């Protein structure tokens, strides 16, 4: 386990995941991580691929959220190509919201 924690790529991936907590859903005012919108993050020395969804395929703020993901990662990882892949399976549900996200939304 210590090898995983001390691995440089893993530390960078953890940093990238932490940065995504700064991307807010502009309608709900909760970050995309606590909303459970990020499904995967593949970090390589050259690129970052974020696989994520939106609460609905017709989300009016979808482009803004995707651009927010690209922007926060590009600020921290200037030498990486940032890609976002939107997927619709598995379908997002309220069950994916973290305890912190539920607290922020007033869902107990």
From TrEMBL:
It holds the Pfam family FeS_assembly_P. It comes from the Bacteria. Residues 17-84 form the MIP18 family-like domain. SUPFAM superfamilies: Fe-S cluster assembly (FSCA) domain-like. InterPro entries: Fe-S_Maturation_MIP18, FSCA_dom_sf, MIP18-like. This is Metal-sulfur cluster assembly factor. It comes from Niastella soli.
């Amino acid at each position: 386990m210590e090898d995983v924690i001390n691995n440089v790529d893993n530390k960078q991936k953890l940093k990238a995941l932490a940065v995504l907590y700064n991307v807010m859903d502009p309608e709900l005012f909760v970050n995309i991580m606590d909303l459970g919108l990020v499904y995967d993050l593949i970090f390589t020395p050259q690129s970052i691929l974020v696989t994520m969804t939106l609460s609905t395929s017709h989300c009016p703020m979808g482009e803004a959220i995707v651009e927010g993901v690209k922007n926060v990662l590009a600020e921290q990882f200037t030498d990486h190509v940032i890609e976002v892949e939107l997927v619709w399976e598995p379908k997002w549900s309220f069950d994916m919201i973290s305890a912190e996200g539920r607290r922020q939304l007033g869902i107990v």
